[in-house]
């Protein structure tokens, strides 16, 4: 089995074993691509949300937040283009009866070409050592040039065919490239068809009077239809932004890879309203700001890259993804889109209401343009969780599993551990717990050996373990153990709040932005 698959399996089993993520409805054998967050998962998720919200709303005096309803007027989805254009091209394999996204099959083919190009580059790097000029090599090595050119040709042909709704050509491309079902090798494909990703539901007490609704496939539309309410009540001038965190629903054709692609997931989106003609500058600014936000979490610059879109969504005049190196390769983590005035103009047209902004500097009214940043909360969770989960061999040959999350995001900040329960150590430890619980999320544990308790806390990412022993009763000091270095030091109980706060406060992350 490939190593990548082993790593990913470990991520999934660790997430379940330590109360981060459970398959939904597990006692009924689960529900495909739906997951529940457990006691540690919800804390990590809430901390990620808080970090995003603070970076967006608290640090920017021209960005405010909202929380709009999941159910919205059905015409919104007609106006936004989702009823007509929120489709994925699907294709079935007649032999395996498996369903695939035609565009993903082609993109995966291109990813393999890119792997080949990268291998050539890595080989040359090794061969030439310090004298290696990567830029020149990439521009002149015939094999690398060929692999890259082929990718470009394939992707732009696919983009053109999808834009023109020429699904026969998408199928022809799959056949020409001899793409096979990855599991069975069969090339016996059906025609390519469009499949709308929105879930429908009904509002109303009786079947006859019911209105057809959709579960929102993105949170963004709740922001668009509220933009004037917010602008008028907050009195913000352009440029200003509205941020929102909330659930979105998509009937994904292929929902695999754990929480990477789910049918119910959470988005953290921000719409930045700007004057027409300025949007591409703000688009570049937000690309950079969002990349910095990701980098501030310390998962390593080499694990992120931009992917500029060839095929633009129906609403965009520029778009890029921030991709992260997940255990299954580089994949989209966040989308940054210059959405033009597409959405607001469409809502003007469909609602018959004016959604214009009067610009006092230009002395004119217009429909603002919008730059959007949209990150999947669950994907961010997966990026952090999979990157930070490590197996380590210690000096004495023993092993430990540690989840080295940024301390500000860790579900539990400190574990309070009496060495033994008797002799008054339990009571002393409880006193510390009760004193610190107003500031930090803590756990109190007295069962099992201290070593086992340390390991359990390493596995859920607790940055500090605080051990109360017999000396504590005499000198009011405790042993403070650091998760990452496993170093231990003796510190006065009165210093605990300051030491923990210094490490876990969001300030540490926010100051890097
Ligand atoms: N409002 C723009 C929008 O929704 P998108 O690129 O379709 O754009 C934004 O989605 C982000 O939402 C993605 O970058 C991804 O992180 C997340 N996302 C999209 N579909 C998802 C799914 N099925 N499961 C988990 N996350 C998803």
Task: Map the helices and strands.
Elements: H1 3-17, E1 21-23, E2 35-37, H2 39-58, E3 63-65, H3 75-79, H4 82-85, E4 87-92, E5 99-101, H5 102-128, H6 134-140, H7 142-163, H8 167-176, E6 193-196, E7 200-203, E8 211-214, H9 220-224, H10 227-234, E9 240-249, E10 264-274, H11 279-295, E11 304-308, E12 318-326, E13 329-340, H12 342-351, E14 357-359, E15 364-366, E16 369-376, H13 377-388, E17 389-393, E18 399-403, E19 414-418, H14 425-436, E20 442-444, H15 450-460, E21 464-468, H16 470-475, E22 477-482, E23 488-492, H17 496-504, H18 507-510
Parallel strand pairs: 3-9, 19-20, 19-21
Antiparallel strand pairs: 1-2, 4-5, 4-6, 7-8, 9-10, 10-16, 11-12, 12-13, 13-16, 14-15, 17-18, 21-22, 22-23
Helix pairs in contact: 2-13, 5-7, 5-8, 7-8
Glycyl-adenosine-5'-phosphate (GAP) binds at residues 218, 220, 250, 252, 261-262, 265, 267, 269, 332-335, 372, 374-376, 378-379.
CATH topology of the largest domain: BirA Bifunctional Protein, domain 2
Number of helices, counting only DSSP H or I runs of 4 residues or more: 18
In terms of structural class, how would the helical and strand content be classed? alpha+beta
What percent of residues are in strands?
Answer: 15-25%
Quaternary state reads single chain
Rg from C-alpha positions?
A: 26 Å
Hetero groups bound?
Answer: glycyl-adenosine-5'-phosphate
General form: globular
Spans with pLDDT under 50 lasting ≥5 residues?
none
The CATH superfamily of the largest domain appears as Bira Bifunctional Protein, Domain 2
Assigned CATH class of the largest domain:
Alpha Beta
Number of strands: 23
User: What's the average pLDDT?
Assistant: 95
């Amino acid at each position: 089995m490939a190593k990548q698959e082993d790593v990913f399996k470990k991520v999934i089993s660790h997430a379940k074993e330590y109360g981060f993520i459970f398959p939904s409805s597990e006692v009924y054998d689960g529900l495909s691509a739906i997951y529940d967050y457990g006691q540690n998962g919800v804390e990590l998720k809430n901390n990620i949300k808080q970090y995003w919200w603070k970076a967006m709303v608290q640090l920017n005096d021209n960005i405010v937040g909202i929380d709009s309803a999941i159910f919205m007027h059905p015409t919104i989805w007609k106006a936004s283009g989702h009823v007509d254009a929120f489709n994925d091209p699907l294709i079935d394999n007649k032999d395996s009866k498996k369903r695939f996204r035609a565009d993903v099959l082609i993109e995966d083919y291109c990813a393999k070409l890119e792997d080949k190009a990268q291998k050539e580059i890595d080989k040359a790097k090794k061969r030439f050592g310090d004298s290696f000029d990567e830029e020149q090599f990439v521009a002149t090595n015939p094999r690398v040039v060929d692999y890259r050119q082929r990718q470009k040709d394939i992707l732009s042909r696919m983009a053109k065919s999808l834009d023109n709704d020429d699904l026969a050509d998408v199928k022809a491309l799959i056949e020409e490239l001899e793409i096979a079902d990855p599991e069975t090798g069969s090339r016996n494909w059906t025609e390519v068809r469009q499949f709308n990703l929105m879930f429908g539901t009904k509002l109303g007490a009786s079947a006859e009077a019911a209105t057809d609704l959709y579960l929102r496939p993105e949170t963004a539309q709740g922001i668009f239809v509220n933009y004037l309410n917010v602008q008028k009540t907050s009195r913000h001038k352009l440029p200003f932004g509205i941020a929102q965190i909330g659930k979105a629903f998509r009937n994904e054709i292929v929902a695999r890879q754990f929480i990477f692609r789910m049918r119910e997931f959470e988005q953290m989106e921000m719409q930045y309203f700007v004057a027409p003609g300025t949007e591409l500058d703000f688009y570049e600014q937000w690309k950079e700001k969002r990349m910095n936000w990701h980098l501030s979490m310390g998962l390593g610059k080499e694990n992120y890259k931009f992917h500029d879109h060839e095929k633009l969504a129906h609403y965009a005049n520029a778009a890029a993804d921030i991709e992260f190196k997940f255990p299954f390769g580089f994949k989209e983590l966040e989308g940054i889109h210059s959405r033009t005035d597409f959405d607001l103009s469409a809502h003007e047209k469909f609602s018959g209401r004016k959604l214009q902004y009067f610009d006092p500097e230009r002395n004119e009214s217009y429909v603002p343009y919008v730059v959007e940043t949209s990150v999947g909360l669950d994907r961010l969770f997966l990026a952090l969780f999979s990157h930070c989960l490590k197996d380590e061999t210690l000096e004495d040959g023993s092993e430990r599993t540690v989840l080295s999350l940024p301390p500000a995001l860790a579900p539990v900040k400190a574990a309070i551990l009496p060495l033994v329960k008797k002799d008054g150590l339990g009571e002393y430890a409880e006193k510390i717990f009760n004193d610190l619980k107003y500031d930090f999320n803590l756990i109190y544990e007295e069962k099992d050996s201290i070593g086992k308790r340390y390991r359990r806390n390493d596995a859920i990412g607790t940055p500090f373990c605080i051990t109360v022993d017999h000396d504590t009763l005499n000198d009011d000091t405790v042993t403070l153990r650091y998760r990452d270095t496993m170093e231990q030091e003796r510190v006065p109980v009165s210093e605990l709040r300051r030491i923990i706060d210094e490490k876990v406060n969001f300030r540490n992350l926010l100051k890097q932005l």
